[in-house]
Amino acid sequence: MTTTGYETFSPGEPEELGPLGLTAGARLGLDRLRDLQERHELEVILYFDEGLARNSTLDTDYADFQIVPVQARPFMPLQIFLRVMAEHDPGFADRMRREPPSVEVLETGTFNRSSGCVQCTRPYVKGLLL
After folding, report:
1. pLDDT digits (tens, 9 = 90+) for 81-108
2. Within a 10 A sphere around the Cβ of 42, how many other Cβ atoms?
3. 88 to each of 42, 79, 81, how far by Cα in Å?
4. Are residues 42 and 124 in contact, defined by beta-carbon separation less than 8 angstroms?
5. Do 52 and 75 contact (CB within 8 A), yes or no?
6. Residue of 28, 116, 120, 113 whose CA lies nearest to 78
7. Whole-angstrom Cα distance, residue 106 to residue 11?
8. Which tens digits make up the pLDDT trace of 27-54?
9. How far is CA 55 from CA 50, 86, 105, 107, in A?
10. Which is nearest to 126 in space by CA: 68, 76, 88?
């Protein structure tokens, strides 16, 4: 995901995420989170720094890190994380099948993106890779 200044994150609990087990405090495998993202059109943002993840907002973090390449940030969209890991660690896919890393859901909400006069809204999950 790239930021253009037309994205906003609105914390809350989208009702479609609760039945999927995606509520604050839930822990699930990275493989399950990937599958849910693919099937349910949601945006998953993974954090790698616990302090930042727990004490900051997505809007603030995207603004603060906008000049930092996505792969160098202490957070990134799940799709990018999986692609980077596959490129740099050929054994990652096998390890993920055998013992997927865990993710703690820290926040859910609605992601809003505008492009011209088109508004796209979808649920998001902010998670901490454990």
Report:
1. 999 999 999 999 899 899 999 999 999 9
2. 21
3. 25, 14, 11
4. yes
5. yes
6. 28
7. 10
8. 999 999 999 999 998 999 999 999 999 9
9. 8, 29, 14, 12
10. 76
* DSSP output for the chain: ----S-EEEEES--TTTGGGT-STT-EEEHHHHHHHHHHHT-EEEEES-HHHHHHS-HHHHHHHTTTS-GGGSSEEEHHHHHHHHHHH-TTHHHHHHHSPPEEEEEEEEEEEEEETTEEEEEEEEEEEE-
State how far the alpha carbon of 4 is from the alpha carbons of 27, 50, 113, in Å. Answer: 31, 26, 9
Q: How far apart are CA 112 and CA 32, in angstroms?
A: 24
